[in-house]
Amino acid sequence: MTMSESRRKKLSMLMKSLSAGDMPSAQKALAEYGHSGVNRPQQKAAGPISLADACGGAEVGVEVNGERVPYWLIRRTLSEVSPDDAAISTEFAAVLAGARQQFDELAASAELCHAANGSAEDVLFMDLETCGFSGSPIFLVGLMRCEGGELIFEQHLARHYGEEAGILQAFAERLAGAGVLVTFNGKAFDMNMVRERSAFHAIDVPPRDGPPDNRMPPHLDLLHEARRRWKGVLPNCRLQTLESHLCRRHRTGDIPGAAIPDAYHRFVDTADARQVRDILHHNLLDLLTMGQLLCVLLTGCEPGE
């Protein structure tokens, strides 16, 4: 998709302002150049909805280079989000404990074997939402993990551009304790973005080849696994294609990924969290689908079989 000149200028000015730590100018850049009308949802007449009312959660903080940086954390279990889908947590915990696993370890990737041989609690799923192109800020780090047989979603949200360092530091701390990191296209996109933006904020991320006590855990990219398994079998290997064919879930009313950056910029401008709720739900579904795909890869069975 070709980026419009106005959008290019807007993002360029935004990045210059953020690099200089000039938050008022960042806000002005957004206001002056406006937002793309592509996929813009209809604006409702009612007043803004607060983040707490729209999404729940609470403010938390982490220390980044000696300073406390706050951000917003939404933590929910799958049974709280959708009680009817609680069985997905049970299935995930059972499969990661070894139930019904049947895959060729000799042909499988090393990363898939790491996931299969660890415990459910060792696996950390991650999915980002960003402000656009490479080098632009990250505003949401969505994480999913299993604890006590329950899938738990932790969505670390920057309420404005100045809170990016907080969510990156929180992720770095979570990553350090993970046995396996699972993403979808994370080797090409998510982790490169994390490393780039973390370097900008002087935040340490475990290196790929560091010492045993400070090393990036094995990184399982489900896009690579999906291509090995379903390329030429399914129409494509996009996450939502896999979701509809393998998980039998069809999203309705989901915010398109291309509309997410502008929706976030509007939230920063207006403090109206309506579409942040939509972004969080989109991110949560991406994480849940990743968890189900891992089960399919390990068992050879589609959910429910």
TrEMBL record:
Molecular function via GO: nucleic acid binding
InterPro entries xrefs: RNaseH-like_sf, RNaseH_sf, YprB_RNase_H-like_dom
Range of residues in the leader sequence: none
Pfam families, alphabetized: RNase_H_2 (PF13482)
Annotated ranges, domain YprB ribonuclease H-like: 124-294
Alphabetical list of PANTHER family matching this protein: EXONUCLEASE-LIKE PROTEIN, YPRB RIBONUCLEASE H-LIKE DOMAIN-CONTAINING PROTEIN
Protein name: YprB ribonuclease H-like domain-containing protein
